[in-house]
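haha ok so turns out i had the wrong file open the whole time. this is the CORRECT one, sorry everyone. sequence first:
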Amino acid sequence: MTVETNYVVFPEGDTQEIPGRLSIDQIVDHNGYPLPLPLSSARIIAFRVVKIRHTETRGMLDILHYLELVPAYELLEYVG
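then structure:
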């Protein structure tokens, strides 16, 4: 049996466990949860998934979702 664990890796190197998988270019909040689009405002802290890495050891699969901070001017594209 393999245990799968998902993490987000913030730009500073901190990691946090999240409940499920994310996809590349997905916009998430500071807790790693996907943000509903369109956004109500560009004045939020948001991250974009830029890389996904799988590390597997005996019985363990860790999925690391690397994030980058999205600047406010880019978030304006997602405001409805």
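The radius of gyration is 14 Å.
again sry for the mixup
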